[in-house]
Amino acid sequence: MKFDVITIGGITEDIMFHAKDLKIIRNPNKIGSDELFAFPAGEKILSDEKVLYTMGGGGANAAVGLSKLGLKAALVGAIGTDPSALKIRSELKKKNVNLSLVQAISHYWTGLSFVITAGRRSDHVIFTHRAANEQLRLSYPKLRRLKGRWHYLTSLSGPFWQENLDVVFKVAKKKRIKVAWNPGSAQLKKGARFLKPYLKETEVLILNREEAMELVKSAGSPRSRSSPRWRAGAAGGAAGKKTSNIEKLLTILESLGPRIVSISDGPRGAYVYDGLRPIFEKALPFPAVNTTGAGDAFGSSLIGGLIIYQGDLKRALKLAMIRSNYVVRKIGAQVGLLTLKEAEEAMEIRGQGTGSSN
Question: What is the pLDDT of residues 250-304, one digit of tens each?
Fold first, then answer.
């Protein structure tokens, strides 16, 4: 079987816990998030809603998101040999995700994320134990045998992540597979100089605004190969005060090598850039219930849209925005995922009419 997309990344059990009495305070420091969760020391904090046990992880979320669009998806990742692993395998099979390269790591627990939401409910903090995910070790021969049109690469962790990164890109280059890449914190911390050889082989780079700023700041002062306005010396270098400007972020990131750059900007919307002109799509004007999984829904839908709409970047962005906006209306990273038919109906209602050309 040839898969439309092979996703590589994390697989976790997510525990969703909501506590309305938690305080959200302003961060007095200039670094990091603008807001902080405040926990009363020594107190028991009760959930005011039913605690949910769901499946998550970047690799699993992307695979399920693509499968729900009607695409053939395979997942490459690692789980433990505990009861959670059995439950996750069963759920993924029900969602038509191929698991032939999911590794069961003996003597390790399946990855766990404890997600606490509070206040306006879109605010959350995640406590993560990577567990078996950190023991993922890819085999070049095995990955090469898995036939696919795209690799969708998410966050990698553990002692083998650089080795795994090499394997993914070597297989992609050998077999002419397109790579969509949503790098994780371990990859971004290595900086642009380390990542550039891989970025040059990347078809679509997927980041949120904060991730884009981090990568750009590590890049020094590159010049976009396609933006005369930037080459002429727009204010601020790559590490200057203006690095939060989305268009500048797009042009700098594009200069590092990827053919297409995508930057999501939370409730404001998202941008894509292919070296010619940036395309922007507004977010839907609905309040978020929980933002867990929104980035995975956006990224996987963008790639799914490029496949379904045969490279039409604008239509793919619309699909990504619609599906990610519906995910944040539900508790859980995969609960609100729309089918292609449901997403296109929502696009019609919004006045974005588009039919599938697949």
Answer: 999 999 999 999 999 988 999 999 999 899 999 988 777 777 789 999 999 999 9
- Assign 123 a pLDDT band (cuts: 50, 70, 90): confident
- Mean pLDDT across the chain: 88
CA–CA separation, 345 and 261 (whole Å):
27
Query: In the chain, what is the greatest distance between 2 CA atoms, to the nearest angstrom?
Result: 59
CA of 146: how far to CAs of 68, 76, 92, 202, 285, in Å?
20, 10, 18, 19, 41
- Map the chain to HEC letters: CEEEEEEECCCEEEEEEECCCCEEEECCCCCCCCEEEECCCCCCCCCCCCCEEEEECHHHHHHHHHHHCCCCEEEEEEECCCHHHHHHHHHHHHCCEEEEEEEECCCCCCEEEEEEEECCCCEEEEEEECHHHHHCCCCHHHHHHCEEEEEEECCCCCCCHHHHHHHHHHHHHHHCCEEEECCCHHHHHCHHHHHHHHHCCCCEEEEEHHHHHHHHHCCCCCCCCCCHHHHCCCCCCCCCCCCCCHHHHHHHHHHCCCCEEEEECHHHEEEEECCCCEEEEECCCCCCCCCCCHHHHHHHHHHHHHHHCCCCHHHHHHHHHHHHHHHCCCCCCCCCCCCHHHHHHHHHHCCCCCCCCC
pLDDT surpassing 60 at residue 316: yes
Provide the residue type at 251 as one letter.
T
The pLDDT confidence band at residue 47, using thresholds 50, 70 and 90, is confident
Distance CA 163, CA 317 (A): 32
56-94 as b/e, with b when 16 or more CB fall inside 10 Å?
A: bbbbbbbbbbbbbbbbbbbbbbbbbebebbeebbeebee
For the entire predicted model, the pTM comes to 0.88
Phi, psi at 63, each rounded to 5°: -60, -45
Q: Which residues pair with 129 in a beta bridge?
A: 112
The two tokens of residue 84 are 């959670």
**Chain centroid to CA 290:** 16
Domain 2-21+47-349, classified CATH 3.40.1190.20, yes or no: yes
